[in-house]
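Forwarding these from the shared drive since the link keeps breaking.
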Amino acid sequence: MELKLCQEAMDKYDGSLEKIRGWAVTLWIASLGWSFQVRRKEVVLLSIVVLFTFWVLDGLNKSYREGYKARRDAVAHALREFFERGSLPTDFSSPNLPLHIRRFHETVKNMFRFHASLIYVVLLIVSAILFVKM
């Protein structure tokens, strides 16, 4: 049951990641469209602010997900040992629930992982090019 609860929490955060990235791209496109409509390059800066905001939310959400992944992995390791040796590891205790406070370091680390940062970096480069060319 514990593994199922942890996996459900991880799935919830995965769904949030999809929504965050979808909204980031949607609002980025809208802000660029607005900048072309009003022909003001300052509005392109709005697209950069939008991307950075959602990039931070993406990293924060990923750090929450990793807390549940660590809990799931600890439980899975204990169960694996139990079935292999017939007893739980001697140092095993119930893993702590993930804390959702003081996540700055994990958030920044997750923001700059290749798979998470690729979309934001590409869109930021496009915004920077458009800002310079307008």
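-- next protein --
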Amino acid sequence: MTEVLDQPSALTDPGERRGGSGLFRYVATKIAEAVASLILVVILGFFLFRLLPGDPVTFMTRDRPTDPQQLAELRTRMGLDEPVLRQFVDYLIGLLHGEMGTSYIDNRPVADMIAERIWPTVLLVGSATLIAVALGLWLGVRSAWRRGSFFDRANTGIALTLWSVPQFWLGLLLLVGTGGLFPSRGMHSPDAGPGFWAQGIDVAHHLVLPCVTLFVVFYAQYMLVMRSSLLGEMNAEYLTTARAKGLRDDLVRSRHAVPNALLPTVTLVFLQFGMVVSGAVSVEAVFSWPGIGQLLYTAIHGPDLPVLQGVFVVMAGAVVLMNLLAELLYRVLDPRVRTA
């Protein structure tokens, strides 16, 4: 008996003994997968944009006569005369030093151009995402809990319609429908007064139409996903047990059903926050919003390869990072992942 008690394996749960190493291995695996995804993004982004039609040098000199020798000098200065693999190596070395190259069109560091555009995009897409998450999850829970009712059918029909509407088309409809009530271009008015409050009100006024355009599409996604997830939990045995214990219906929903139904929605929420950095190209193009999406739209017409590569890496990196955080949060929220 003493020998049995002296053996830790007789009294200690193997899962508990492996808890620390299991957590470390899980986190290390997910980080390694994220790093591998980023490496693949860098490789794919570099070679993918080399397949785009159009010559950057020809585009830059389209409005003025240029002889072949000048074109050759421009290609040499931009490094386009070197082999593709050599260009790729130089690009990797620059990334490791925090450099993304220089814009062919604007002749400015790409990192500086992205830094200028990222905050307008975060303001626009972040505001739309936060409102959409709050309203979409709230309506999704109530639609599922009242499934089959008029409230459920109406909300589901509206959400399906809004989800299927192209964002650029909806933006154009809002521009026509509001009749000039809100600004249609840019982020600032040239006649806006000085001072923090005057500038803030002016930006908010410009933000209304593009934010509403993004919000109605985002909200529809969250509403439908949350409704579907909660419907999958409605007939679970643990809810029947909770009701048998005398819990009110509101408590059964808020304490038991909703927390479990939120798990599939976590990935969507985090991925959407990852898309905050990338913005919405079509919406920013329609409203001339000076964000990442507008920068990408302009660079495609070049083609401005360094800008395209830099924006692509930033966009994809944000999604990969948010996906990593979602998977790590899953282990905290779902005990089944911890014991797997």
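Confidence is low (pLDDT under 50) at residues 1-17. The CA atoms of residues 45 and 309 lie 6 Å apart.

- D.
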